[in-house]
Design a protein that fits this description.
The structure is a single chain. The protein is of the alpha/beta class. An eight-stranded parallel β-sheet has the order 1-2-3-4-5-6-7-8. Helix content is 51%, strand content 14%. It has a single domain, classed as Alpha-Beta Barrel (TIM Barrel).
């Protein structure tokens, strides 16, 4: 067995994965045709996934979201997304989705939720993958709408809806605007995380932790600009959900092999990092490939990769007993896989 095969089989969590960013380009084209949506000029479906900045990417992300309209669409894209997770060795997934993007084109929250939950249930029956859901606030719509959003999520609560996130363009939409929404999320028993420090300043990370009471940080690369914050987060061991390939599109850290790449600095500083794929078809990768990238391009060792995989268990929003059981069984399984590498 070679190292790439072992890393694909290695048990993993996926804690930073956007449903709408996980739609295969061919599926996107088919759904757009089904609903008679006009697409940008393209020779093949994969041409639709071309961009050079976070703003460009979000334009495409919104168009993909608008192509998902009915219950069957949501079931299909959820099932396909989670099936790819299984093929990358994922054993547990916490899946972001973006209700606001669908509400904008007249899709009811009930419709999207019914379809997504059906996909989650179907994949667990068929392939055994356990998944939970994290509806994400579109920060571009402002703090007042965010409170309404959290209330909507609370009013349609399901056991698989375990938290809320905060995403879309960080620039111009600082976390301070969402204190009330996150306070409400805490009051109704929802976990909390936020995209921060991806394109915005390190201060957004501190604000997310201190004012929004976030339990995880999504991306967080610009923490390397603030040595004090870096040390504080290393001491507290708050998890960061890192997505290596995404940095080459949306952040200032575009050379994965650079010794000062943010993920390398974050790991060297002792942050608790988990490895995730973010929007895999849109970046031409999957979760297993991200682990291979860490090994081949970024110089992380197999022991490092084992640590990242087990960190995902610690960072997951699951009960402590399950965490203890998984840490034991996964650790033994990973050791067995790595021992077979030649």
């Amino acid at each position: 067995m070679n190292i790439d095969e072992a890393l694909r089989l290695m048990p993993k969590t996926e804690l930073h994965l956007h449903l709408e960013g996980a739609v295969d380009s061919t599926t996107f084209a088919e759904l757009a045709a089904k609903h008679r949506l006009e697409l940008p000029p393209h020779a093949v479906a994969s041409d639709l996934y071309e961009y050079d900045s976070l703003a460009d990417f979000l334009d495409v992300y919104s168009l993909v979201s608008h192509s998902i309209r009915d219950r069957d669409d949501f079931q299909r894209v959820t099932y396909e997304c989670l099936e790819r997770c299984v093929n990358s060795g994922a054993r547990y997934v916490e899946l972001f989705f973006s209700p606001e993007s669908h509400l904008q084109v007249g899709v009811s929250y009930e419709t999207m939720l019914e379809g997504v939950l059906q996909g989650v249930e179907d994949i667990q029956v068929d392939l055994g993958l356990v998944s939970n859901l994290v509806p994400a606030i579109n920060r571009e719509l402002g703090g007042y709408r965010a409170v309404e959003f959290v209330q909507m999520v609370a009013d349609h609560r399901h056991d698989r809806i375990i938290g809320v996130g905060l995403d879309f363009n960080e620039l111009g939409h600082p976390p301070e605007a969402f204190v009330d929404a996150f306070r409400l999320a805490s009051q109704v028993g929802l976990h909390r995380t936020s995209h921060a420090g991806e394109v915005g300043p390190a201060q957004n990370i501190r604000t997310g932790i201190e004012l929004l009471d976030c339990q995880r940080v999504d991306h967080g690369y610009n923490i390397v600009e603030d040595a004090r914050l870096l040390a504080d987060c290393a001491a507290s061991q708050i998890p960061f959900t890192a997505c290596p390939t995404t940095t080459t599109y949306t952040s200032a850290f575009r050379d994965l092999g650079a010794p000062d790449h943010a993920i390398r600095q974050m790991a060297d500083a002792g942050l608790k990092l988990t490895i995730n794929s973010d929007d895999p078809p849109m970046f031409g990768i999957d979760l297993a490939m991200e682990y291979c990238t860490l090994y081949h391009q970024m110089g992380f060792t197999p022991d490092d990769l084992k640590t990242f995989a087990l960190n995902g268990i610690d960072a997951a929003w699951i009960d402590d007993q399950t965490k203890r059981e998984w840490r034991s069984t996964w650790s033994n399984e990973i050791d067995g896989l790595l021992s077979q590498v030649v």
